[in-house]
Design brief:
rod-shaped; 333 residues; 6 helices; mainly alpha
């Protein structure tokens, strides 16, 4: 199936897998960062809660100081100034209590209602102290001041307990935040490692089996063809990608080269046959010429012999003619 895909398609698929892996890595990273951000927010919230509870305790101490001032000096100016400071500190206490209530959870949130009730009782007792100071009733003033001191002490103890709870919550949030950061590092690192391994594996598979190995086979085939070896078919003809196109082109070239070698071999065989026939013909012509030369020599010898015979016959004829002439002369005599 993969062999029918083009190299470009495989590369696009690898890029798509890379993008998906990168998206997963970014998702994990943002998730871890979000968890760390929430942990930091919790650390900040618990830290602010502890600070606000500590400042609420400071508000109670300032209100107690204003109370003692009214008890020590019950003049109208001192009482009015003390009441103004008590109101200002009480308003800050209420504001800080509302801020703590907005983000508090667990034991800290459960103790806020009781703290608010204690604070309301303390404020009413401070109002009683102010009334007694204005009326110059020393007995009522001392009684109200004593009860206000007890309420203030109880309120400060409650604030101290809440501060301890807020501090424990802040410490726990800090530890959880460090744990989240450590786990987040491992999660991001493991995800990145898995992503890198998958990406490198896919890249190796695509490069090795889709590009490098087929190209090496094609290069080997080209080397064989360059040396004239056309006996082995080109591999990769069944592939549907660019490597398959190259293989099919090389196969066509191999077949053409094989056909050319066949024709050259046939031509060489024909030339050898012609040379053989020419040599045989030349040998026959040489033999014929040899035979013909012998015959000419024989005829020449015969002609010479005939010439000698003719000369002898001519001499005999001359001698016979002379003899006849002698006989004739003798007869005439």
């Amino acid at each position: 199936m993969l062999g029918s895909l083009s190299i470009a398609t495989r590369l696009y698929a690898f890029v798509a897998v890379f993008v998906v892996g990168l998206a997963v890595l970014l998702t994990v990273t943002f998730t871890v960062l979000g968890a760390n951000e929430r942990a930091l927010d919790e650390i900040g919230a618990t830290g602010r809660q502890a600070l606000l509870v500590a400042r609420m305790n400071t508000n109670v101490q300032a209100m107690s100081a204003a109370q003692f001032r009214m008890a020590a000096d019950s003049s109208a100016d001192v009482v009015a100034d003390s009441q103004a400071k008590i109101k200002a500190e009480a308003d800050l206490f209420d504001e800080r209590l509302a801020s703590v209530r907005a983000s508090a959870v667990g034991d800290l949130a459960a103790g806020l209602d009781a703290l608010a009730k204690q604070f309301e009782s303390y404020r009413r007792m401070l109002d009683a102290v102010a009334v007694a100071a204005k009326s110059n009733e020393h007995k009522d003033l001392l009684d109200a001041t004593g009860r206000a001191d007890k309420l203030a002490a109880s309120l400060r103890e409650a604030a101290r307990v809440m501060f301890k709870q807020a501090e424990v919550a802040a410490t726990g949030a800090t530890a959880a935040g460090h744990q989240n950061v450590s786990q987040g590092k491992w999660v991001i690192g493991a995800t990145a490692l898995i992503f890198i391994v998958i990406a490198m594996t896919l890249a190796q598979i695509i490069a090795q089996y889709s590009i490098i190995r087929p190209l090496r086979l094609s290069i080997d085939a080209i080397g064989r063809l360059a040396q004239g070896d056309v006996g082995e078919k080109i591999s990769g003809l069944e592939r549907g990608d660019e490597i398959g196109d190259v293989a099919r082109g090389l196969e066509i070239f191999r077949e053409g080269l094989a056909e050319r070698q066949r024709l050259v071999a046939e031509q060489a065989a024909g030339a050898a046959a012609r040379e053989k026939r020419a040599a045989a013909l030349e040998r026959m012509i040489g033999e014929f010429e040899g035979c013909l030369g012998g015959m000419v020599s024989a005829v020449s010898c015969s002609a010479t012999d005939l010439h000698g015979t003719a000369s002898s016959l001519d001499g005999s004829a001359s001698r016979g003619e002379q003899l006849a002439m002698s006989v004739a002369a003798a007869a005439e005599e």
